[in-house]
Amino acid sequence: MRYLFFALALYSVMGFAQQTAQNLFSHYQSALYQIRIIELGSGNKSSIGSGFQINDSGVLVTNYHVVSEYVYFPEKYRIEYLAADGTVGELSLVNIDVVNDLALVQVQSDNKSTDFFSLSAHLPEQGSSIYSLGNPHDLGMIVVPGTFNGIKKNSFYQRIHFTGSINPGMSGGPVVNPEGEVVGVNVATAGNQIGFLVPLTKIRALISMNDFTPISANEYKRVIATQLMDNQQRLFERLEHEEWKLNELGGAKIPTLTGPLLSCWGDSNSADQEALYLSVENRCSLDEEIFLHGSLRTGGIEIEFEWLESDEFGAHRFYDFFSGSISGASAGNHAGKNDVSNYQCKQDIVANNHDVKTKSILCLRAYKEFPHLYDVLYIGATLNHESQGLISHFTLAGVSQGSAMRFTKQFVGAIAWQ
User: Fold this and answer.
1) Is the predicted pLDDT of residue 13 greater than 80, yes or no?
2) Is the pLDDT reported for residue 337 higher than 70?
3) Whether the Cβ atoms of residue 162 and residue 152 lie closer than 8 Å to each other
4) CA–CA separation, 68 and 385 (whole Å)
5) Alpha-carbon gap, residue 207 to 133, rounded angstroms
6) With contact defined as beta carbons under 8 Å apart, do 119 and 204 qualify?
7) Residue 142 has pLDDT above 90, yes or no
8) Is the pLDDT at 275 greater than 60, yes or no?
9) Burial class (CB in 10 A: 0-12, 13-18, 19+), 269
10) Residue pair 88/80 in contact by the 8 Å Cβ criterion
11) Which of 32, 39, 118, 337 yields a CA-CA distance of 20 to 30 A from 60?
């Protein structure tokens, strides 16, 4: 009897979800659009995404990354929509929020749908059923039932954790509660029924700051630059004021952020009885990045420490081994030669207040499109001992010189011996 009751309850829940999905599709399909980026030379689409209408003036919400190639290269692309009734038309770019991966676009023809989505007054309770709508793989609009799991932990760029399948082409589509009210926007998938959504508050913020007048193409990069600069300032102000504590790593003490901002992992070869040296590692990173276009991502942070020691090596051999271990350090973000300059590096010997002497290499490369923003690469190797030492390394993506220098001073000054 217990199993029969469970089966009936499960059937009832599945039936409710199916009926809700059908109702959502039938009521709102005219307010859902496929968004196409058209390459002007060939006249064919180069990428697709989804979008949804939010007012009777034909304004749609989508992801920034859906329209990013047009934003960067407006002379090469245009934005089109495909409506549920097969209508095709042109879209203009109203505004963007590159940090939160959102964009507003507007239907240019007079043939605008009178149907549109409303925003929910609040996020649902954790565990609630929600529904992702979009256009996967150019197959037409679908509804995917899933579960609201709250705001993702260890997240500076806030995302909702969604249990459900967000497939390519669904980016920019709405995620709604059973009443059809928008609670988030499809943005990314981590596979295995793990998806991430831009939360309701970010959508509201972008809509509220707009009069829905399209911005001109020559303003796109200026808007992005301002948003990136403001974002890095907020991020590094938070890093400077978060609580850092010293954790033991081999014979050293390293600075580690105690809050939820960075995810940290560790490893060592201590279980390998045949190893000629001991290696103990600590790695922390900001998991999210800001997508700018196909070959450029920014906004990330990586911090790495490795403690090395060996009684098997002589002083000269250990020095060669130790020096060679720092040669593989590289930038933490993806950027092409058209996006950033070559690294310019400065080398120095630094002694901090904890009597730790470090050979430091600090490198910066400039963003060609965004003055005053840089990627930073730091490598440090302690010089106090002949058979053991600490290698420290960090990369910062898309920061001002002022933020970079303050972070470097805080980072190098905190390292200590046990």
Assistant:
1) no
2) yes
3) no
4) 50
5) 20
6) yes
7) no
8) yes
9) middle
10) yes
11) 39
